[in-house]
TrEMBL record:
This is Phosphoglycerate mutase. InterPro entries: His_Pase_superF_clade-1, His_PPase_superfam, PGM_Phosphatase. Gene3D superfamilies: Phosphoglycerate mutase-like (3.40.50.1240). SUPFAM superfamilies: Phosphoglycerate mutase-like (SSF53254).
Amino acid sequence: MKLWLVRHAPPLIAPGVCYGASDVEADAERTAACAAQLALELPRGLTVHSSPLRRCLQLAQALCALRPDLQLRQDPRLREMDFGQWEGVRWDDIPRAAYEAWTADFGTERFGGQESVNDVLSRVAAAREEALAAGQEVVWVTHGGVLRALALLGQGMNRLDRADQWPATVAGWGEWQSITL
């Protein structure tokens, strides 16, 4: 089963700001360019599963407008990690003690009070299992954190203990790849 993984275009937010689950827009020009290129690549009749956050929905909607054969479905499991009280705060302004607590217990610490990395892995695993069970080629329009979580799941890791286990690299803004599950 093929899964197309698409990362949203650059978000319109100041550099250095923690914005995980914040509902910010993406660069409109880059969104349109990504949608136009991706529309040429995708097979007909796929379902496009999108994070409900605007920066992903913009891309999913632009893609479906170009390709009426595609069906859009919002999936909250594909949203970025929720950093709670740190949403909208500059990373440099987050207290060092908060980082230390997070890295000391990376899998289960709820950085910002909302969601842990293992929570993210769990919801992405549920979406992945649903895609596998359906057995049909599908598109995910999502975020860097979800793509990292999916990479770990592909390696058989469904829980993390250490920060150094979290993948350091991810697809760039407006980039995509396809993987076989």
